[in-house]
Amino acid sequence: MSLTNNDDFSVVLTITCLKIAGYWRAATRIQQCIYNFLITSGASGCFNKKEVVIFLRYWHAFMNLSDCLYGLCNLITLSLALFKLFLMLWYRKEFYHLVNFLRKEFLNSTYDSYETVIVNRCRRISTFFVCCFTFFAQGTLLNYSLSPIIDNIGKNVTGRPLPAKVWTDWAGDTPYYEILYTAQIYSIYHGGLYYFSFDNFLCIITVHVAGQFRILQYRLAVLNSANSRKNNGKNSAKEHYITFKNCVQQHQILIEYCKKIEATFSIFALVQVVIFSLLICLVGYQIITADATIARRVIFICHIGGSMSQLFMFTYGCDCITRDSMNVATGVYAGPWTQLSMNKSGKMLRKDSILVILRSSVPCSITACGFSSISLETYTKVLSTAVSYFTLLSQSAETEMK
User: Fold this and answer.
1) What is the C-alpha radius of gyration for the chain, rounded to an integer number of angstroms?
2) N or C, where is the chain less crowded by C-beta within 10 Å?
3) CA-based angle 10:376:109, to the nearest 5?
4) pTM for this predicted structure
5) d(CA 63, CA 70)
6) Would you say 286 and 69 are in contact if contact means Cβ atoms under 8 Å apart?
7) Separation CA 353–CA 332 (nearest Å)
């Protein structure tokens, strides 16, 4: 599963991040040992250090609402990253199959000029989303890493802050401070890689699958139209039917591929939808809270930008699959079936076209564990819920201050 020249930038970037995190299929035994060490140390470092530290912060700050919500926000973010890692480890074989099929059948296939335009558009969209989300995620991680250093400028060695506070007297002394700082940064960056890399691949997969449905619509609409015009629609029904069967096979492959995406990412989608309303609410509160430092506000500005872009690219790709899979019926109806002769092949093509139209009326979709289909409507509902939570939280904070 090495990189190829046909991989676009979004695929290269995401694979590189997963390799750094240790989640990738190794070519040699030594490489496998390195990946196992990276993923084990990263996951254990996140859980043993960051989770415990955030829990202690939450416990110590129980009477301070602002600090309590700050710890809860970080706890949810890191827990979500670890959940994604463990879930994708469980579906590791299915995930690799989806990625291999994407690169082999979608990115490395041969297309005509019109189909190439569709594929290139999918590449640009996926690259834009992946770069935006990665930029905000890396900005959040960088601000987490640099804020203790910036806060320590002009101060003495005693009481030097860490990215995650530790309640010990020796944490600020050398070399313990340097060791703890390095360990926390390592766990933060590993958690960040798990947090955005799997979302990036889901976006890439859904956008390209939607593009394949658009290519299928085009192929069904044109079939052998050039040959049909040449022969005035005579003696070409057999050639049309052969091309039509190839399109039906492609349609079946895309339907099965969508089912595999659904099986792999349905739990993933459910947790995303449930958690994002609360997460966006908490992140937004950290930006406007009165006692937040400038460094903390910068961190959560990047965080909310990443959360919004993450939620949009997640729902946009799923919405494209739903709409474009239904539009296959339009491509069938726009085909040259009216120009074909009423011989055996012509009759079979017309009957099979009806079946394709009926199947297209049931769209392919990615659901939240079967509860509801993910679409752009989900995006607006999550934001609406987040605003409601935010209003209640702000009112509670004002009441506490009074």
Assistant:
1) 26
2) C
3) 35
4) 0.85
5) 13
6) yes
7) 6
As a whole number of angstroms, the distance between CA 220 and CA 213 comes to 11
Residue type, 61: A
Evaluate the CA torsion angle 344, 346, 348, 350 in order and state its sign: negative
Q: How far apart are CA 137 and CA 157, in angstroms?
A: 30
Q: Do residues 234 and 349 make contact, with C-beta atoms less than 8 angstroms apart?
A: no
* Residues 6 or more apart in contact with residue 395 via CB below 8 angstroms: none
C-alpha dist (Å) from residue 185 to 56, 148, 160, 188, 314: 18, 11, 15, 5, 27
367 pairs with which residues across the strands? Answer: 373
User: pLDDT of the chain along its 402 residues, tens only?
Assistant: 555 555 678 888 888 888 888 888 877 888 888 887 777 776 766 655 444 445 445 455 455 666 677 777 777 888 888 888 888 889 888 899 998 889 888 888 888 888 899 999 999 999 999 998 888 888 888 877 777 777 666 666 666 666 666 656 655 667 767 777 777 777 778 778 888 888 999 999 999 999 999 999 998 888 765 444 445 444 477 777 788 888 889 999 999 999 999 999 989 888 888 888 888 888 887 777 756 677 777 888 888 888 888 889 889 989 999 999 998 888 888 777 777 677 777 788 788 888 888 888 888 888 888 888 888 888 998 888 888 888 887 777 666 555
